[in-house]
């Protein structure tokens, strides 16, 4: 009972954190749209393209896509081959799910850590975009941050699957 | 063990991890990193993960995906699909099988503002299926038609399939977009002919709808205005060379928003839901591309694509036979793997082979997209089948499976036509110089 309460709490927490990250992602996506429209209308009508417009667009895209990682997982958007799993009994499915969740958790912990290390390299090398001179490391660090809610979501899946495996 | 053997083991392990139900993008990244670590070094493999993910998320060419996905989501929220269906329904509904023919026409039209099969299928399905039920249409015909015609969303520009193929193979997205128009129209006509023959054989499956006057038909055609404006603004601007692909998508998305607001169809709730849908689909596609990029780096160090290209190029059979084998292979895999996943996974591997055999890269993009249309309707993994099931919950999945079977014939005819007459795909792009 205590374990399932804990899982439920973790589930609610990861959901709410993912929800806020997704909000940031939506603003990032709408930012991509607005920046591109300002750039194209500015260039075609006023002969004044948005300074560093291309860089603003691709950096906002990082905010958008990384921010949506966790909620897309919650929403089941990442495509999977499910038909073979569906043929297994409940416990067999839970064993496989716990294995794939463990592998996914390992992958995103590694991505989070490696992105953090990469951001330090970019920071120490003072890497910036070519035109607008925007520092790159905060955007790589954003990927590290976005791995946190995703890892929480995957951890919830893992614990739920393990509970199913050991259920009498 | 040679890098080639390690690459082959990597592919087998990848298919095994797919079968375990791990998200395809995660599986490609995981196996790609493991293989790269083994063949190069663990330090290089681990740092490749962060660098590849950031490089793809921060890729300006890839920003074309979110903006065109958003255009489709906003077009849906702005009620453009409903107006298209109403126009098609008023003009064609009175004929035998007319409502299904109208659905095909509406899917073709919606494909001109939306680049996704699932969105096209869901949009037209939600409007058309209740109407067909009202007029006593057979469930098998109704669901099968919309599942198959929904695939036109990726052949008629804009198209997420063409965008991803164009990015992976460094082909002009504008030329790919325009190359889909003639095959898209041919497939739509073949679908309509299939419906006509099915209804002629058994008139009870598609009874005629309400008769309309010529005046009503002409008035209904005004429902095409929004689609025409959006297509002309976005895709027209791209073809004319006014906009880059990303700019064309952004202008199209903004145009769909403005149309929705001007017609008072788009609510705040609708806008927010469309944005959420847009970001989740974009995230799924970009993560898929990031995973495929990592796997692609592993494949490159394993030398598989080059060895395969040399081997198939040297086979003592005409290139067209190799192409037919490739199509059959794609068709079978398409039954089990998602269409977009198949593109990002296999296009980098087979593209060098196709180039070595002397095929046109734009033509091959059309072939891949038509095969992807087949993949989205073939069980057990055809996404459109499940979209229709989600729209019409009371209809058994088997009925939908049965419904799409007759539409595999038009697909095969279209593929045969494209192989026999590649100009169907390459004629229009020859007018575009960029």
Task: Write a structural description.
The complex is a heterodimer of chains A (168) and B (434). With 168 residues, chain A is mainly alpha-helical. Chain A has one domain. Chain A contains five helices and no strands. Chain A is elongated and about 70 Å long. In chain A, 40% of the residues are buried. The mean pLDDT of chain A is 92. Chain B is mainly alpha-helical and 434 residues long. Chain B has one domain (62-295, 302-431). Chain B has 23 helices and no strands. Chain B has helices at 3-19, 24-39, 42-57, 64-77, 80-92, 98-111, 117-134, 139-150, 160-169, 173-179, 181-201, 214-220, 225-239, 245-262, 268-302, 304-313, 319-336, 339-356, 361-375, 383-391, 397-404, 408-420, 423-426. Chain B starts with a helix and ends in an 8-residue tail after the last helix. The model of chain B has no long low-confidence stretch (mean pLDDT 90). Classes of the chains: A mainly alpha (168), B mainly alpha (434). At the A-B interface, helix 1, helix 2, helix 3, helix 4 and helix 5 of A face helix 1, helix 2, helix 3, helix 4 and helix 14 of B.
């Amino acid at each position: 009972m205590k374990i399932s309460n804990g899982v439920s709490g973790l589930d609610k927490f990861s959901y709410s954190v993912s929800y806020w990250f997704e909000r940031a992602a939506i603003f990032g996506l709408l930012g991509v749209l607005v920046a591109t429209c300002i750039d194209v209308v500015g260039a075609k009508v006023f002969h004044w393209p948005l300074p560093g417009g291309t860089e603003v667009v691709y950096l906002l895209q990082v905010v958008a896509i990384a921010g949506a990682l966790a909620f897309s997982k919650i929403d089941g958007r990442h495509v999977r081959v499910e038909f073979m799993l569906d043929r297994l009994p409940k416990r067999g499915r839970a064993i496989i799910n716990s294995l794939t969740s463990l592998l996914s958790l390992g992958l995103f912990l590694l991505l989070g850590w490696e992105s953090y290390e990469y951001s330090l390299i970019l920071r120490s090398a003072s890497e910036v975009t070519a035109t607008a001179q925007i520092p790159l490391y905060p955007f790589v660090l954003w990927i590290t941050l976005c791995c946190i809610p995703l890892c929480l979501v995957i951890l919830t899946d893992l614990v739920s699957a393990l509970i199913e495996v050991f259920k009498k | 063990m040679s890098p080639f053997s390690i690459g082959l083991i990597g592919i087998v392990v990848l298919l095994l991890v797919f079968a375990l139900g791990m998200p395809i993008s995660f599986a490609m990244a995981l196996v790609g990193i493991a293989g790269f670590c083994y063949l190069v070094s663990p330090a290089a493999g681990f740092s490749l993960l962060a660098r590849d993910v950031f490089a793809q998320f921060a890729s300006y060419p890839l920003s074309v995906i979110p903006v065109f996905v958003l255009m489709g989501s906003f077009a849906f929220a702005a009620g453009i699909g409903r107006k298209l269906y109403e126009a098609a329904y008023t003009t064609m509904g009175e004929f035998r099988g007319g409502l299904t023919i109208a659905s095909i026409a509406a899917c073709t039209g919606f494909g001109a503002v939306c680049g996704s099969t699932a969105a096209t299928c869901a949009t037209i399905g939600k409007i058309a299926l209740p109407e067909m039920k009202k007029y006593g249409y057979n469930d098998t015909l109704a669901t099968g038609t919309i599942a198959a015609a929904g695939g036109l969303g990726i052949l008629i520009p804009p198209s997420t399939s063409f965008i991803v193929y164009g990015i992976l193979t460094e082909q002009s997205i504008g030329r790919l977009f325009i190359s889909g128009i003639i095959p898209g129209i041919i497939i739509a006509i073949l679908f309509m002919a299939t419906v006509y023959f099915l209804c002629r054989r058994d008139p009870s499956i598609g009874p005629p709808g309400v008769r309309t006057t010529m005046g009503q038909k002409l008035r209904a055609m005004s429902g095409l205005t929004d689609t025409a404006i959006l297509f002309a603004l976005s895709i027209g601007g791209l073809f004319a060379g006014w906009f880059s692909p990303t700019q064309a998508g952004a202008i199209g998305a903004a145009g769909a928003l403005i149309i929705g607001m001007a017609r008072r169809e788009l609510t705040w709730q609708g806008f927010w839901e469309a944005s959420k849908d847009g970001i989740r689909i974009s995230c799924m596609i970009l993560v898929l591309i990031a995973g495929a990029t990592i796997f692609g780096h592993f494949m490159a160090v394993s030398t598989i694509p080059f060895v395969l290209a040399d081997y198939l190029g040297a086979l003592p059979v005409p290139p067209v036979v190799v192409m037919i084998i490739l199509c059959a292979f794609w068709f079978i895999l398409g039954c089990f793997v998602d269409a977009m996943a198949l593109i990002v996974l296999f296009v980098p591997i087979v593209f060098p082979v196709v180039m070595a055999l002397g095929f046109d890269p734009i033509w091959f993009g059309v072939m891949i997209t038509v095969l992807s249309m087949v993949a989205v309707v073939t069980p057990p993994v055809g996404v459109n089948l499940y979209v229709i099931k989600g729209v019409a919950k009371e209809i058994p999945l088997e009925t939908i499976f049965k419904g799409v079977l007759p539409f595999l014939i038009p697909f095969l005819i279209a593929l045969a036509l494209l192989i026999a007459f590649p100009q169907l795909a390459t004629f229009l792009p020859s007018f575009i110089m960029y």
